[in-house]
C-alpha cells in the first residue's frame, strides 16, 4: 500500500526505499523490476463476454426489439418471438465480436504511444546520475524522477523538491481545480508531499521518488478505470437525434396497427404478432453492428497505412464531419526547435549583454525549477550563450507559464544585492518595466518589426534589489519596475509537411484556423510562408465572442483557445483541434475531436482522441478522409434501410386495411427483414464514391429524416402499385384478391427486389462509372434479389407459407420495379442537385 512506503519524513522514506536523491543504479532498477513487476495498471480490464453482450443490449434499438419479442411471447406467438429473439442475439453477438476485435487492436496501438518518464539513474554506484527517458512501465519503487508541465504522474511519488507545482488530481479525487503541492518534509493529511498516479502536472516542476508502482498505486487500489470515454461528440449527437425519432415511431406502430385494424376491419388481438412484426420491420437493428464495423475497420486501416491512432472509435466519424480545424503554431506548424537569431538592445543595435542576461535567467530557471527537460527557448538561449549563469548563485525561479507569459529568476549579485531577471512576451514584460508610455509603444513596435520577419521574440528585463526574503517573494510573485534590457529573437523552422497538409485540408473543404500564444506578426508570417492567407490577424482579447471570420488568433491563453473552440462549436461547426503543448490541453478537450502528435506532452496525448504517431502532418488529411469514408458507409446504411423500411411499413399498413387477409404473415415479414439485414452488412465494406469524400460528412437529423420520409413514400408507392397489379392479375379489377399464398409470395419477391434496387441507388456519393467491378454492395444486392426470386418456390418458402408463382406474376411486378427504379434514380438526381 502506498501509505506504508510513503509515510514519515523524506529521509525515512528514501531509506525505506533503499534509494537516495541521486536515484537508483541501472542494476538496482533492473533487479527491482524483476521483483515487483512492470508499472502497469492490472486493471485495464477487458470486459467479459456476458458483460459485452449486456452492454450491446443497452443499445436503444436492440432494447426495443427485445421488448417486442417479449410482447410476442406474452401473447404466445412463439414463432414471432423466437425469430425476434434470434435477431437480438445475432445482433448482440456480431456487435460484441466487433467491439472485441476493435478493443484488441486498439490496446495494441495504444501501447505504441505509451508514455515515458524522465528518471535519474546511475550507470554504476560511484557514477553521477544521468537523466534518462524510460518507458513508464519500467519505473520501480525508489526511482527518482522529474515532473514538468503537461506530464502524467506515472506512479505514486513523494516530492523531494518542487517549484510552483500544481497538479490536477481529478481522476482520483474529483476536484476539478489544480492543487498546489510542496515538498514538505513530513507527510500529513493537510499538506501531503505525495502525488498519485493518474494525476497530471498543470504547472511547475518537481523531482520526486517513486513510492509505489503498478497494482500498488492508489489509483489501482481505487479500481478506477482510466479516462472515461467522452460522450456528446458530433457522432453521438446525430445518431441520438435520429434514433429517438425512430424509437418513437416503433413504439407507436403496434398500437396504431391494432387500432386501425380493430376499427376498420373489426380484427382483434390476433393482429398483434403482425403489428409487432411490422414494428420490427421498421427497426435498423444492424445499426450498432454496422457502426462498430465501419469505424473499427477505418481505424485499423489508418493505423496501418498512416500511423494515425484513433483512441476513441466515434472520433473517427467526428473527424469525417470536421469542417473547422484549429491548430496551434509552435510545435505543430513549426518544428519548435528555435535557434537564436539576434540579441538587440532598446535602440535595436546588436547587444550580447541582452543574450547573456536571458541565458542567466534560463540557466537558473533550469537549475531551480526541477523541470525534466528545458523549455525549447531556454535551451536555445543556453546553446548560443555558452556557459553562463554559474558565476552567480541562484536564489529562486518561476518557470514560464503560458497564462502569464513571463519567467523570472533571482540571482545573488555583489554586495548583498539580488538581480531579478524577467524574460517573456514583449507586452507582458514591458508592462512590468518602469518605462514611459511613449517609449513602451516604441519598444512594442520594435518587437513587432522583428516578429514580422517570422521570428519569435523574447523580451528581457532586469532589476537590482537589496537582498532579503521579501525581495525574493515580490520578484517571483509580481515583479514590477524593471529595467528593459532588450530583445532576443529566434528562428523556428516550419514543419516540413505543414504546407502540404494545409493545402490538402483546404482541398477537402476543411477551414483551418491558427490559435497561438505567440505574437500576431510572428503567426501571420508563418501562415503566409505556409501558403495560408492570415487575413486580418486578431488577438484573443479582441474576440470575446469567438473567432468569427478570423483565420489567425494570436496571444491566446490556454483558456482562450478552449473558449474560441467552444464558440465555434456553438456556432454549429464540427471542430477539430490539433496541438501539442500544455497550453493546448483545454482546447483539445473542448473540441469535437482532439488531435495530438506523438511528440506532444503526456497530458495532450492523453486528452486527444487521435494521435499522429509520425511527424507527418499530411496524415490528418488521410484521417479526415477515413472518417468520411466510415461516415459515408454508415449514412448509406441508414438512408437505405430506413427509407425502404418505412416504405414497407406504410404499404403493409395500407394493404392490411384494404385486404380481407394480412398482406404478409408475421414470419414472412421477419424472414424478409432478416434477409435484408444480412445484405446490409455489406455497407460496412463499401467504398463510397468520390463525392462523399469531398466535403465534411455530417448527418443532419432534420434533412436526413426528410430524405427518409421522401424516399420511403416513393417506396410505399411502388409497393402499393405492385399490390394493385397483383389484384388486377389475380382476379380482374373488381374481384377481391383471395389467393393468399400467391399474394404473399409475389409481394415477398417484389419487396426484396425493390430493396436490392434501393441498395444500389441510394448509396452515398454513388459513382456508377462503367467498368467498375461490382463492390460488396453490388454483390449483396444481387444475392438479395436471388433470394427474393428463389425462396418462395423452395421448401423453406413453403414452410413460411409461400408458393411458386406462375410466370406471368413475375412479369407485371417486373414492370413496376423498372418504373420504380427510374423514378428513384430521377428523384435522387433531383435531390442531389437541390442540396449538393
Ligand atoms: N521559456 C520561455 N521563457 C520566457 N518567455 C517565453 C518562453 N516561452 C515562450 N515565451 C514567450 O511567450 C510567448 C508566447 O508563448 P506560448 O508558449 O504561449 O505560445 P507558443 O508556444 O509560441 O504558441 P502555440 O500556442 O502556437 O504553441 C512567446 O512569444 C515568448 O515571447
Ligand atoms: Mg504548441
Number of domains: 4
Distance between the termini: 62 Å
How many H/I helical runs?
Answer: 31
CATH architecture label of the largest domain = Up-down Bundle
Biggest beta sheet summary: 8 strands, mixed
For this structure, what is the CATH homologous superfamily of the largest domain?
Answer: Calcium-transporting ATPase, transmembrane domain
Helix content: 40-55%
Overall SS class: alpha/beta
Q: What molecules are bound to this protein?
A: adenosine-5'-triphosphate, magnesium ion
Taking Cα atoms only, what radius of gyration do you get, to the nearest Å? 34 Å
Shape: elongated
Please report the first level of CATH classification, the CATH class of the largest domain: Mainly Alpha
Give the strand tally: 22
Give a structural overview.
The protein is an alpha/beta fold. It has four domains: 1-228, Calcium-transporting ATPase, cytoplasmic transduction domain A (Distorted Sandwich), CATH 2.70.150.10; 231-299 and 624-834, Calcium-transporting ATPase, transmembrane domain; 308-334 and 495-615, 3-Layer(aba) Sandwich (Rossmann fold), CATH 3.40.50; 339-491, Calcium-transporting ATPase, cytoplasmic domain N (3-Layer(aba) Sandwich), CATH 3.40.1110.10. It has 31 helices and 22 strands. Strands 1, 2, 3, 4, 5, 6, 7 and 8 form an eight-stranded mixed sheet that branches. Helix 6 packs parallel to helix 25, helix 11 (287-306) runs antiparallel to helix 24 and helix 12 (314-321) packs across helix 24. Magnesium ion is lined by residues 328, 330-332, 579-581.
